[in-house]
Write the structure tokens for this entry.
Amino acid sequence: MNTLLETRNLSKAYGKKQALRDISLQIQSGKLIGLIGPNGSGKSTLIKLINGLLVPSSGEILVEGKHPGVESKRCISYLPDRSYLADWQTPAQAMGMFRDMYLDFDMEKAKDMAQSLCIDLKKPLRTMSKGMQEKLQLILVMSRDAKLYILDEPLAGVDPAARDFIMRTILSNYCSDATLIISTHLIQDMENVLDEVIILKDGTLFTHSAVDALRDSHHMSLDQIFREEFKC
């Protein structure tokens, strides 16, 4: 199995604040991985570093053996935790923009997902609810034929009734030989589909483990382990 993503002694500081400290990871192809940790543990910083949106203070990141840059962006499909689309755009225009930006964008898949999620392709984003806008961004990301999908809190703005549907949309629209990293606080909703989990604590790597092995060693669910380790 190929190593798709590797971090070596990765650290990031914002002035005197150490956001990440000495993170070393090896992530293989074909995995579904949860990225979890309390608020302020460094999850978003790690995601931004992998996507080349931040520069490490020390250490390095390799995506298919290359440092983040033009080449890595071609194989990473990234869903940030905030909207990046203009409110005057329609879903059709946003899809056209992605088609022009990414050679691996599948327009027919995007349209099919939009139909299944009841998104009007001609309706400007400013007239859509926040939840519908987030669904559109998810569609754009999952319509790429990428090697690494990174989703930052994809279920955060979704009501509980829609979470299962959104998860099915995610799981049925990425290549089985690709890797999917999902940052989430909704561990109970996610843990049954995860192969592995990365847990960050105070900017350090608490654990990177197969979910089944972690549950077996603790005799608890992943959600229970998290609650026990990070209880106030």
Observations:
- The first helix runs from residue 43 to 50.
- The first strand starts at residue 3 and ends at 14.
